[in-house]
Amino acid sequence: MRLPFLAGIGLLLVLAAGCTPTVQVAAPTDPITINLNVNIKHEILVKMDKEIDQLLQDNSDLF
To answer: Which InterPro entries did the record assign (predicted)?
Structure first.
C-alpha cells in the first residue's frame, strides 16, 4: 500500500520539476552602439549701462 503512494509522490515531483520556469542570460551577438547627436547652442547676452555704452561710442578707437 505504501509503494503506490510513494511512486505517485515521486511521479508528481518529477512532473513538477519539469514545469519550473528557467531564465537564460546570453550576451548579444551584435556590438552595442551608442549614437550621440548633440547640438550645443548658446547665447551670450550683455547688458550695459547707458553711461558705458556712451563711453564706448565716444572712444570707438579703443576696440
So the answer is: YnbE
